[in-house]
């Protein structure tokens, strides 16, 4: 059996308490300071991952306990050492391939340096994240009755590794593609490099709000630690697929825009009856703030590599190989992985929720007509 590990880190102070209940009630400045010197550790043992044809894997969540802002602000070498240290912990437990979660796959050069220093192969999981995100976006379009072929789509974070690949995968299925990023020079050069091969009309802008207001479909893939999409930015009946952690869409959208469908695009249902058991408190489940049986797509890519005995650094760096996106998507499907049930803002999206969202969009369009 090939085994894996996956590097996690808290995305918020609420996550710190989920990871370490003993942190509850402590002041945030103290917690942040503790995290700066806290060494990597094994957080959870993952078992019960089983394909339909009976192949199995097991692994570990290994924590590199830094908050997103700390990942960005601390000296790069210090952050690298924390991430590589977490992978060493996983390797000592028996892992033969490692995955990078959240900002551990973003900081620096997108996992390249970490992979060079790690004792086992490393993947960011971005290939399966991209495949799952694009699938989720168009599933949302179907649920909202949007004709994708005549729609305008926006990718926010288009110059990033995930966003750039999503642009090329979404473009064949829409009428107009708008590329959005903060750095105008980099964005313009990227658009110039892909414009001729995009099979739809395309444009680019750094004005996020203006672009989103024109969009039927929005996919976000930024590395921002702040909200980038506010309630007033969104078009009636729009679908927004978030691939970013922390989230890009303001939580106010949930209450102020009942006519808009927001979905978390990177969640997958794991085959088998898998469980994450806390290492330090045996018998206690590790709370990843996801529904039972669900994992992030980047985690799932790491699991797929282990199930397929592909101990290789599958997805690294800023450039994404679209053939690899298609390959890992097919392997995941063969191994029994599938899109998880829709959810947004940490809450399940029920059939009743979808019906209310469609009705609210129709009512708002009628009032505006």
Automatic annotation (TrEMBL):
Show where the Quinate/shikimate 5-dehydrogenase/glutamyl-tRNA reductase domain sits: 147-255
Which top-rank group of organisms is this from? Bacteria
Q: Which InterPro entries match?
A: NAD(P)-bd_dom_sf, Shikm_DH/Glu-tRNA_Rdtase
Annotated SUPFAM superfamilies: NAD(P)-binding Rossmann-fold domains
- What name does UniProt use for this protein? Shikimate 5-dehydrogenase
Q: Which organism is it from?
A: Vulcanimicrobium alpinum
């Amino acid at each position: 059996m090939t085994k894996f590990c996956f590097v996690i880190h808290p995305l918020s102070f609420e996550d710190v308490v989920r990871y370490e209940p003993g942190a509850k009630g402590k002041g945030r400045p103290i917690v942040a300071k503790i995290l700066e010197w806290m060494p990597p550790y094994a957080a959870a043992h993952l078992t019960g991952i089983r394909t339909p044809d009976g192949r199995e894997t097991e692994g570990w969540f290994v924590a590199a306990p830094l908050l997103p802002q700390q990942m960005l602000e601390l000296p790069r070498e210090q952050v690298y050492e924390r991430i590589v240290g977490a992978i060493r912990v996983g390797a000592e437990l028996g892992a033969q391939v490692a995955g990078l979660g959240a900002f551990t796959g973003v900081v620096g050069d997108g996992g390249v340096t970490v992979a060079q220093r790690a004792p086992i192969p490393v993947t960011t999981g971005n290939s399966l994240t991209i495949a799952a995100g694009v699938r989720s976006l168009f599933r949302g379009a179907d649920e909202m009755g949007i004709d994708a072929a005549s729609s305008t789509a926006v990718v926010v974070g288009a110059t990033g590794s995930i966003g750039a690949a999503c642009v090329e995968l979404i473009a064949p299925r829409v009428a107009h593609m708008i590329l959005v990023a903060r750095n105008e020079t980099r964005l313009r050069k990227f658009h110039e490099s892909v414009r001729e091969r995009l099979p739809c009309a395309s444009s680019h802008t750094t004005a996020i709000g203006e672009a989103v207001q024109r969009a039927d479909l929005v996919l976000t893939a930024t590395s921002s630690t702040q909200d980038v999409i506010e309630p007033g930015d969104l078009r009636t009946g729009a679908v927004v697929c978030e691939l970013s952690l922390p989230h890009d869409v303001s939580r106010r959208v949930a209450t102020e825009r009942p006519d808009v469908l927001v979905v978390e695009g990177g969640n997958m249902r794991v085959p088998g009856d898998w469980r994450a058991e806390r290492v330090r408190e045996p018998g206690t489940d590790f709370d990843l703030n996801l529904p039972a049986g669900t994992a992030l797509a980047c985690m799932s890519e790491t699991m797929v590599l282990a199930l397929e005995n592909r101990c290789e650094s599958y997805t690294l760096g800023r450039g994404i190989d679209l053939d690899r996106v298609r390959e890992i998507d097919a392997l995941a499907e063969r191994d029994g992985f599938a899109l998880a049930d829709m959810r947004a803002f940490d809450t399940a999206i029920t059939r009743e929720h979808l019906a209310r969202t469609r009705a609210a969009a129709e009512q708002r369009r009628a009032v505006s007509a």
